[in-house]
What we know:
Elements: H1 2-23, E1 38-43, H2 56-59, E2 67-72, E3 86-87, H3 101-107, E4 110-117, H4 123-131, E5 133-140, E6 150-152, H5 159-172
Parallel strand pairs: 1-2, 1-4, 2-3, 4-5, 5-6
Amino acid sequence: MIKGIKDRFKVKSGLKYLKAELENPPATVSRPKGLRSIGVIVDMDNFDRSEEFYDLITDFNLRPNGVKIIGYKAYYDTNSPYAIPVFSDKDLGWNGDIENSYALEFLSREYDLLINYYTKENLMLQLMTIKTKARLKVGFSEVDSIFNDLILSSPLLDFDTFRTEIQKYLQVMDELIL
């Protein structure tokens, strides 16, 4: 019983933190144009082929460690192996803090491009998006546009269309030199 009340207060404090962060202008990341590093936040409850993002290494001619992926699952078993690092709702701390070593390591880096690969509004996913330092953020139209700089309207499960569209828009923005 006490744990449920505590979790509700954590969610409330997380929402308060998120609202306060959205009111402030986002921190600018001063990285030169071009893609050298891509961060990906994936909702693994709705898209379970997250390893396909490693194909972006060849698509965008990146170094082997140029793509960093972290997945979200509403619930995950710590004893089950996952192909990529995972965080969940239980990793929510007070005041919007995320208490997961994989998530903290992901957040410690700066990215040229952040891909928010989720279509449902979720506090943990939105906190990760707000806290990630990236020059350009890309996401889907189903999520509030305040979280992303570039918004795509493709189905979540159609990764090939997403890949084609993002490549097209990045070329138009002179981010890619192919």
